[in-house]
Amino acid sequence: MEAIKEPIVNTIISESLNNSMTYDAYRTLVSKLVEEKSTTGNERTEALVNYTMLNDRRMKRWDKTVKLSDEAKSKIKSFDKKVTWLVISESWCGDAAHVMPVINKVAELNDNINYKIVLRDKNDALMNQFLTNGGRAIPKLIMIDDASNTILNTFGPRPSVATNMVNTFKATHGTLTPEFKEDLQRWYNKDKGQSTVDDLLGLLN
Fold this sequence. Notes:
Elements lengths: L6 H12 L4 H13 L10 H20 L4 H8 L5 E7 L4 H14 L5 E7 L4 H6 L10 E6 L5 E5 L4 H14 L4 H14 L2 H11 L1
Parallel strand pairs: 1-2
Antiparallel strand pairs: 1-3, 3-4
Helix pairs in contact: 2-3, 3-5, 5-9, 7-8
């Protein structure tokens, strides 16, 4: 995407970063919400609480099992520009549970990558600057050049392969069915985070 330098956007991002948390803090928050049978976000429905519980388990699994190839590790470690990856999320978001642990695995390998997280419903102004096809889709990663505060790129709400699957299904059927959503979860499990790694390497290039 084209670099954005508007002062208003920079101000919004600065305010959001002031309210951001680390990945470890986010994981602690989600686990605490599970204990409290609660969820992040403006809605507190039973379904969203259950999704938060499911996502906590998913993230625990991915935190332990995501693997990066030696080639990927080499590319990540060679990145020499200081950037912030600011990710918009909520605890109930299924795509976020599959993607965010992978982002963490990449960011952990290079001190130049500062991984921060904010909650969507507490950061309306930020979310509204980074809509996907007019929607408030998450997770959304905003890549910021720390030296200039320039927005270099974005990623999300899904890895590009999954995005193509979703777009193709929507074009044919109009909406995502529960069956398709189950198929998408199976795809994430089979992919093991590798499509997300590939897209993140694209950001670093």
